[in-house]
Amino acid sequence: MFLVRTSTEELNQEELEEARLGFVQFLRRKGFSTQFIERHGDDLFATAALEYSRKLSEGERIESPTGWLITCAWRRTMSQLEGEARRPHLDAIDNAEEIEAPTSGDPEELVLDEDRFRKVREAVDKLSVNQQKILALSYFEGMTVREAGRALSWHASKAQRAHEGARQKLHDLLGVTSSDDLVLEVGLAAYISLAGGAATGNFLERASRKSAEGLALTHPLRVRILEMNIRMKSRPPSVETMATVFADTPEYKHVKAAEVKYHRDLLLDAKLLPV
């Protein structure tokens, strides 16, 4: 049984915004483009919010409203993509720019295994608040452990201890030797566990906004992207161009296009790159 809030009432604006931000970040971590999120993210979440209201009006009790809204909005996203995939070829071409969903990897990788996620959430709920915070920032926000500690105003050693302790406890609770394949589920579960807590508020948003420029410059790949943009003196170079340049650089030859895209999008969100 999740140790989370069960609701029979509508959420206030702050709680809805917390869930919306969680859904948007989930789309980012799944590899959706900034364009897709800007065009469809709010509508998909609004559909989930309407469904939430309908469930409440029918007398249903919602366990963990934030988690329910994010999961429902994700289902609506998958339904939209499946609908687009069934359209005739010419129609799909006409609308290709509108979708801009992830194009690499197996489509099944996009699916959120709800049974597995339930087990992960049960385990994450048993972690301490500090452990949940470090996992939410490092696994869901995509920060390094050092960056997450800095965002939380922690010493690096405290952040490392919280991270290692959380990983070990999760391994014990889930009966696994590695949680590498569960990173996104663990991060989302940590975000949901913290959502709406009186002692935490929307700490992810606060931590991310604490110093957008400073945070963007703490990752060497982001620094290189900024330098590349300055040299080109134009709109940000494409992900493909950046990935090709990095592939010819010994220090970054292992970097994949998806990682370049993620850090490029962080810089765009921080308004450190022109759109």
Q: What can you see in these coordinates?
A:
It is a single chain. This protein is an all-alpha fold and 275 residues long. The protein has 3 domains: 1-98, no CATH class; 112-207, no CATH class; 213-269. The protein contains 15 helices and 2 strands.
Compact summary:
This protein has helices at 13-29, 34-57, 65-85, 89-94, 96-99, 114-124, 129-140, 145-151, 156-174, 183-194, 203-209, 212-216, 220-232, 239-247, 257-269, and strands spanning 6-7, 62-63.
Structure keywords:
275 residues; mainly alpha; 3 domains; two-stranded antiparallel ribbon; 1% strand; globular; disordered N terminus
Helix-strand blueprint:
Elements: E1 6-7, H1 13-29, H2 34-57, E2 62-63, H3 65-85, H4 89-94, H5 96-99, H6 114-124, H7 129-140, H8 145-151, H9 156-174, H10 183-194, H11 203-209, H12 212-216, H13 220-232, H14 239-247, H15 257-269
Antiparallel strand pairs: 1-2
Q: How many DSSP-defined strands?
A: 2
User: What class do helices, strands and sheet pairing give?
Assistant: mainly alpha
Shape: globular
Number of helices: 15
User: What percent strand?
Assistant: under 5%
Radius of gyration: 19 Å
Q: Which H/E pattern describes the elements?
A: EHHEHHHHHHHHHHHHH
| Strand order, sheet with most strands | 1-2
Distance between the termini: 45 Å
Helix-residue proportion: 55-70%
Tally of separate domains: 3
Largest sheet: 2 strands, antiparallel
| Average of pLDDT | 77
Low-confidence stretches: 1-6, 89-99, 103-110, 210-215
